[in-house]
Amino acid sequence: MKISVFGLGYVGIISAACLAEQGYKVLGVEVSKDKIAQVNKGVSPIVEPYVGEVVKKVTASGNLTATADIKKAILETDISLICVGTPSKDTGEVDLSYIFKTAEEIGEILKEKQTFHLVLIRSTSMPGTVDKYAEIIETKTGKKRKKDFDVAANPEFLREGNAVNDFYNPPFTLLGCDCETGEKTIRKMYSFLECPFIVTSIRTAEMLKYVNNTFHALKVDFANEISRFCKKKNIDSREVIDIFILDRKLNISEYYLRPGFAFGGSCLPKDVRALAYEAKKIGVDIPVVENIMTSNELQIEWAFQTIIKEKSPKVGVFGISFKNGTDDLRESPAVLLVERLLGKGKEVLIYDENVHLANIMGTNKEYVEKEIKHISSLMESDPVKMIDKVDIVVIANKDNSYREILNNYTGRDIVVVDLVNLFPERKSGKNYRGIGW
Asked: What is the three-state SS of 379-414?
């Protein structure tokens, strides 16, 4: 198996050198004459632990050669890794011009290549890039994707300062591909890695790098905002965070990282507001924390817009408490959603097996009566009768009993709007709508 790597910057030289170290013949394609000369002398063009030693070894063995000859690189290799830069424009938009330039160049050469060629996009690029790349090659060559060539997404997850170790020890190898020939080839290429090999849709793979890096940035900013607040309060933020990260059940875990509906209840909204208010009071800017409630409200609005697009006058809601397994209605996003639907003139009915209005008291009762007057007239005691009376059912609580009720329902067709991923096996279609899937 022979491999060409386009771009010998940070990602490119790591990929090229490490693949060459595994015995593959690698051609590194570069426009910079200086980089080509450096690499061919066995010198790494970047400063990074261990890379210099690897580059020196693989160029000496002949497994890695740098060149400006694109034609040679395409005609003499089976796979091309695209590792060119994707810088930011002044607007913040990612500049994909370098990527698409390689598509034009490779397309010209593939016209005369008789064997199947596979292109892997490793550069960080927005969803849709791979498909556009393939369209450019099809237009240039007149050849067919998956038959004569293919383009797939293979994002990298390398940290500067630890890149070689990350290359050899990734959490997983991710491939966005829907071509059997391409998948088999890449599985073979990465067979030396002892990690899960995940094959997914192309756009999912393209999205992952942005999700990863944005979350990493969010974590840095969150910790720093807490540190600024703590400093003003004469608290050692290092001790606070050290204890915070000990909780692997909720704090550093997958527990809250699931797409779905907004949060509510008596704790989260109250405490987020309290921290944001106190920060303003003591003169500390914490914009990440301050905007958490804004983002939460946008999720309720997103759900509302999803529902009213159906133009159904009668709406049934499964679950009115802020989460399943409780009758707590305080700051329930479902209550706020119902309030908006009523304001839009919708006829709303509610079923929640945990909520019995006669038993609700105190601040819980005050809250719901303030938000939804005459709520008792909206509550249904029989879920099937509720479904019979409405055109659309909204699932606002992740309670498996609702799943069972809907799966066993044999009445007329209704539209189900799933806000909590109660039906993970379904995709948006004729009678099903997911809020974010």
From this structure: ECCCHHHHHHHCCEEEECCCCHHHHHHHHHCCCCCC
Beta bridge partners of 29: 6, 67
CA–CA distance, 64 with 40 (Å, rounded to integer): 8
Q: Which of 299, 297, 250, 292 is nearest to 273 (CA)?
A: 292
Catalytic member of 83, 177, 195, 267: 267
Catalytic annotation on 177? no
Name all domains of the chain by residue range, CATH numbers in brackets.
2-200 (3.40.50.720), 204-257 (no CATH), 296-434 (3.40.50.720)
- Which residues lie closer than 8 Å to 62 by C-beta, 6 or more apart? 25
CB–CB of 295/328 below 8 Å? no
Instruction: Report the distance separating Cα 379 and Cα 348, nearest Å.
Output: 9
For residue 110, give the nearest of 132, 151, 141 by alpha carbon: 141
Q: Is the pTM of this model over 0.85?
A: yes
CB 296 within 8 A of CB 327: no
Residue 368: enclosing H or E segment and its boundaries? helix 362-371
Which amino acid is it at 377?
A: S
| pLDDT tens, per residue, the chain with 437 residues | 999 999 999 999 999 999 999 999 999 999 999 999 999 999 999 999 999 999 999 999 999 999 999 999 999 999 999 999 999 999 999 999 999 999 999 999 999 999 999 999 999 999 999 999 999 999 999 999 999 999 999 999 999 999 999 999 999 999 999 999 999 999 999 999 999 999 999 999 999 999 999 999 999 999 999 999 999 999 999 999 999 999 999 999 999 999 999 999 989 999 999 999 999 999 999 999 999 999 999 999 999 999 999 988 999 999 999 989 888 888 999 999 999 999 999 999 999 988 887 677 777 777 777 777 778 789 999 999 999 999 999 999 999 999 999 999 999 899 999 999 999 999 888 899 999 99
Amino acid at 12: G
Q: Which amino acid is at 18?
A: C
d(CA 218, CA 318): 33
Between CA 30 and CA 16 the distance in angstroms is 12
CA-CA distance, 191 to 197, in Å (whole number)? 9
Tally of CB atoms within 10 A around 281: 9
Are the C-beta atoms of 354 and 321 separated by less than 8 Å? yes
